[in-house]
Specification:
Layout: E1 7-9, E2 20-22, H1 33-50, E3 62-64, E4 73-75, H2 76-92, H3 97-112, E5 116-117, E6 120-121, E7 124-126, E8 138-139, H4 140-156, H5 160-171, H6 175-179, E9 188-190, E10 194-195, H7 207-214, E11 233-236, E12 239-242, E13 263-264, H8 270-287, E14 305-307, E15 310-312, H9 329-333, H10 340-351, H11 355-358, E16 359-360, E17 363-364, E18 368-369, E19 374-375, E20 378-380, H12 381-395, H13 398-403, H14 407-415, E21 419-420
Antiparallel strand pairs: 1-2, 3-20, 4-7, 5-6, 8-9, 9-10, 11-12, 13-21, 14-15, 16-17, 18-19
Length: 423
C-alpha cells in the first residue's frame, strides 16, 4: 500500500468483525491553521470555477476530485454555494475581479430564465441547457440554498445588473404556493403528481426557507409559520439540544448565511444549539471507537455524503445510516465556527498524514475510510461549499456580514421574534 495510507488488519486473536487500526504514517501538516484554511478555500474555489459552465455559471453536483470530469448534472444548491464562493474569491483575489463579476452576471442571467414553477427551481438540471434532469423534484430547500447565494451576490457586487437580476429572482418566488394549504412548507413538487406529501415540519436545515419566505417583499408568508415546525430535544452524554434525527449538516446550512450569533427567538439561541450539536456529534463518534477504532480526537465527523456503496444520510446521535468508520471532511469543515479547535484538528490530520489520497486539487475528497483504504474519487459541490463558507465565517465573518445586509433577512428575523442577547 502507498505510503501515508491507513491499514485495517484482522488479527488472528480478534473476534469476528473486530478491527485493529494502524494510524496513517507520514508528516503532520506543517502550516498554521490560517494557512490550512486558505489552502482549503483556494482549492474549493477552483472547483466552483472549473466545474461550472463558463457560459451558464451552473455548478456540477459532483465532479472527479482530480479534475477531468465530463458529467453534466448541475445542482441548484451547488450553484447557490458557488455564487457565495465567487463572492469570497473576488474578495480574496483568487481571480481577476472583472472575470468573477462576469461569471456572476452570466449565472444570474441564466437563472432568471430557467424553467421554474412559481419561482421555484428543479433540484437538478443540465449544466448547459438548464433542462430538468430526469424527473427530479421542484425543490423548496434547494431553491432556498440557491437564493442565499443570489442574495449574497446582490450585496457584494456593485454591478447594477447583478443587483437587478438577483432581486427579480428572489421576488418572483411565490412562497404561499409552496405551503400548499398547510402551515409548514412542502418539500417539493412534481409536475406529474403535484406536491410531495413530506413537509418541512421539524428542526433541520429548514430555517432558511421560512426566513426567506417571511422576509419576502412580494410574496411573504405569515410570521406565524415560524412556529409551524417542531423543535425536538436530543440528549446525549449530558448535552441537551434541539435536533431532528438528521445528519450534522442540518445544523450548518442555514447558519452559513443567516447570522444567529447573539440572537434568540422564543425557543433557542440556534448558534449555541449548533455548538452543542457539534460537541454531541464528536462525542457520539468517539463512543463508537471500540467498533470503529479510527474514530478519535484526531478523526471524527460523519454527515450526509458518499460512501463505498453510493450516497447516504448518516450520523448521530442517535445513530442513523450504515456507519462503517468513514470520515466525512465537511462534517468538521462545516463546524469550524461552532467548535474550531476540535474541527481544525481533524482537518489538519486529514491534510497531513492522509494527504496523499484524501487531498486533491479541489480540497478534500468527499469521504474516505481509513479502516479499509477506500477514498472517494469524487467531490460534491454542497460539501465543498459548506466547508468553504464556514471557513470564511470563522476567519472574517464575511458571508454572515454580507448576507445580513439584505433588509429582507433583517426584517424576517425581527418578524420571527429574534432579539439580541448579550455574550
Amino acid at each position: 500500500m502507498a505510503a501515508g495510507a491507513a491499514l485495517a488488519l484482522a488479527s488472528p486473536c480478534c473476534s469476528l468483525g473486530e478491527r485493529r487500526f494502524i494510524p496513517a504514517g507520514g508528516t503532520p501538516y506543517q502550516g498554521t491553521d490560517e494557512e490550512l484554511l486558505e489552502e482549503i478555500q483556494r482549492a474549493s474555489f477552483d472547483f466552483f470555477w472549473n466545474e461550472a459552465s463558463a457560459r451558464t455559471g451552473q455548478v456540477k453536483d459532483r465532479a472527479l476530485a482530480h479534475g477531468g470530469d465530463t458529467r453534466r448534472m448541475s445542482s441548484i444548491a451547488a450553484t447557490g454555494f458557488g455564487l457565495t464562493a465567487l463572492c469570497i474569491g473576488e474578495r480574496r483575489g483568487y481571480r481577476k475581479p472583472a472575470e468573477i463579476n462576469d461569471r456572476v452576471r452570466a449565472t444570474l442571467k441564466f437563472i432568471a430564465n430557467l424553467p421554474h414553477e412559481h419561482g421555484f427551481f428543479y433540484h437538478f438540471i443540465d449544466i448547459e441547457t438548464g433542462e430538468r434532469w430526469a424527473k427530479c423534484e421542484l425543490s423548496s430547500i434547494d431553491t432556498s440554498l440557491l437564493l442565499c447565494g443570489v442574495l449574497t451576490a446582490r450585496q457584494h457586487f456593485s454591478d447594477p445588473q447583478i443587483k437587478d437580476l438577483a432581486t427579480r429572482i428572489y421576488e418572483r418566488v411565490d412562497w404561499p404556493w409552496m405551503l400548499n394549504g398547510g402551515q409548514a412548507f412542502s418539500m417539493g413538487w412534481h409536475p406529474e403528481s403535484g406536491f410531495l406529501a413530506a413537509r418541512w415540519q421539524h428542526y433541520c436545515e429548514l430555517m432558511m426557507i421560512y426566513l426567506l419566505a417571511i422576509g419576502s417583499p412580494t410574496h411573504a408568508v405569515s410570521a406565524e409559520t415560524w412556529n409551524a415546525w417542531t423543535r425536538p430535544v436530543v440528549s446525549f452524554q449530558g448535552i441537551d439540544y434541539i435536533s431532528g434525527n438528521d445528519p450534522l449538516f442540518t445544523h450548518q446550512y442555514s447558519q452559513a448565511w443567516f447570522d444567529f450569533r447573539h440572537q434568540r427567538d422564543a425557543y433557542a439561541n440556534y448558534f449555541e444549539n449548533s455548538v452543542k450539536a457539534t460537541r454531541a456529534h464528536k462525542l457520539f463518534c468517539l463512543s463508537l471507537h471500540n467498533e470503529f477504532p479510527d474514530y478519535s480526537e484526531d478523526l471524527w465527523g460523519i454527515s450526509a455524503s458518499d460512501y463505498e456503496k453510493g450516497y447516504t444520510a448518516w450520523g448521530g446521535p442517535p445513530r442513523i445510516g450504515p456507519i462503517d468508520g468513514s470520515i466525512v471532511p465537511c462534517a468538521s469543515g462545516g463546524s469550524l465556527p461552532f467548535l474550531f479547535e476540535d474541527s481544525i484538528r481533524v482537518l489538519r490530520t486529514i491534510r497531513g498524514p492522509y494527504r496523499e489520497k484524501a487531498w486533491t486539487r479541489y480540497s478534500f475528497v468527499d469521504a474516505f475510510n481509513p479502516l479499509n483504504g477506500w477514498y472517494d474519487p469524487d467531490v460534491l459541490g454542497i460539501d465543498l461549499g459548506i466547508t468553504m463558507l464556514m471557513a470564511e465565517n470563522h476567519r472574517t465573518q464575511f458571508v454572515w456580514q454580507t448576507f445580513m445586509k439584505n433588509s429582507e433577512a433583517q426584517s424576517a428575523m425581527v418578524k420571527a421574534g429574534f432579539k439580541t442577547v448579550p455574550d
